[in-house]
Amino acid sequence: MTYKIVASQCTSCSACEAECPNVAISEKNGTFVINPKKCTECIGYFDVPQCVAVCPVDDTCVIDTSLPRYQAAGGAA
Amino acid sequence: MESLSTETIDVGQAQSIDDVMQKVAEHKGCGTSGGSGKASCGSGAGENDLPQEIWDKVKNHPCYSEEAHHHYARMHVAVAPACNIQCNYCNRKYDCANESRPGVVSEKLTPEQASKKVLAVASTIPQMTVLGIAGPGDPLANPEKTFKTFELISQTAPDIKLCLSTNGLALPEHVDTIAKYNVDHVTITINMVDPDIGAQIYPWIFWNRKRIFGREAAEILTQHQMRGLEMLTERGILCKVNSVMIPGINDKHLVEVNKAVKSRGAFLHNIMPLISSPEHGTVFGLNGQRGPTAQELKALQDSCEGEMNMMRHCRQCRADAVGLLGEDRSAEFTTDKIMAMEVTYDLESRQAYQAQVEIERQKVAAAKNAELNTLAGEGNEDIKILIAVATKGSGRVNEHFGHAKEFQIYELSTKGAKFIGHRRVDLYCQGGYGEEDSLETIIRAINDCTAVFVAKIGGCPKNDLLKAGIDPVDEFAFEFIEQSAITYFKRYLDKVNSGEMEHKERGDATIRQGAYITA
């Protein structure tokens, strides 16, 4: 599974777009979305998911559901 | 890590820059000389107070020269939405078009849209001389968009000065690009040089692909800010430092910040009051952190003035502001309107217009100097009063009391009339917080003033002002501000000397915190 962006909280600041190592994030109808086919949760690239680390609004880039990192950490990454 | 590599680049045009920096260094002493009868060199500096090279760089820049801000306009283009740090006084989510504060913007622009907007504004407002990129995030957290915009504008409108405003985290790695695009003014927001204080202002930074918290974050930030500032001054780029005054957190500490930035070659220090209301949704707004009063702010600015040039005319404007400082014409230049505009960039007519502005400006300065001479030998050096002035610009008393959205504040003494700040008096936006009586708001905002100079004023407000002990003065309508102020002050002294009235301290005033109505 992948990360997703909570549209109602997104400020459209675009910070996540530049940080994503998979070029999985793009602007759509005024807010940003993560392409679930491309998102790797940054596993293999960075210790923390880049969109989560850079997003200015907490709990806006969130895990979609049961994904490898989530299960391994036993909680939110 | 990548930020370290930039230091190895050598400075090419060393000779001319050394020259300028030498002048900067010589100039720094001027604030301490005092008592010369001139307004303190500060941002209020005129042609005679500054070395020619620096004067040439700042004289038409409204954000760097107090005198210029009466005559010249600036615009910001909102091409840089992303940010790399989190500040407790900032919340980017809230965008009311009627609100003015940094970090807020109505619409983002692409570099191409921004370039078109600059041309449209420059053609409509010929005294617009400065383009800044100030966000709404951090320009250097969006380097491609920021530098693309500078590139496009320098190609089509080469006479417009470029500047940018940054938190400094990514500054060291971009200094050489800044120099390459001839950005000649950079503002760095520096609120602390002590990481323990920084930890109370910045919850986290995004650095090296990680979110870093607390003291460690503030330590990295302050290191980058200081090194960035040093690297800019080495390259002859003029640096202004902005600081947000947060009572109880960094208010006393800003004296240390002032020393630190002065020693690294900053040209101007702008200490601004914290803007903090619960409705802004910022950490400080929600936890009840207050901003300073007008007199607290002035006392801190005064105490730093002996150390270096202080800026007092900052309006803490939005990242998409357009127009003279204190006015905002951004609603005339929305993307839809710009894209529909036929724009031809007419450099010649802009220059002709600006030549007229220069003539007007010299008249203001000449009138001030002539009047100042009549103050010589008056005695009463201890007496200082503040006056509030309703003005639309051009250095004249030319605004109706009831139409003023802000008042400019001058301190009058036997040394002359010195600009010390402005007070916003506009109402909260519709549906906002509190239906306050506008006159009460105005009186609270200028309560420390002895008089208010206006082009015109109605009978009712006149009486209420008199009751509050503020003298409403309309006899200088459309005259030059400083000349009129000195005339008024001479009369004031005469009355005090003859015993007709007693000189009294006026007390404190409130700094407006709410939304800004621009319509």
From TrEMBL, chain A:
GO terms for molecular function: 4 iron, 4 sulfur cluster binding; metal ion binding. Keywords: 4Fe-4S, Electron transport, Iron, Iron-sulfur, Metal-binding, Transport. PROSITE patterns: 4FE4S_FER_1 (PS00198), 4FE4S_FER_2 (PS51379). Pfam families: Fer4_10 (PF13237). InterPro entries: 4Fe4S_Fe-S-bd, 4Fe4S_Fe_S_CS. Residues 1-30 form the 4Fe-4S ferredoxin-type domain. Its cofactor is [4Fe-4S] cluster. The keyword Hydrolase does not apply. This is 4Fe-4S dicluster domain-containing protein. The lineage of its organism: Bacteria, Pseudomonadati, Pseudomonadota, Alphaproteobacteria, Hyphomicrobiales.
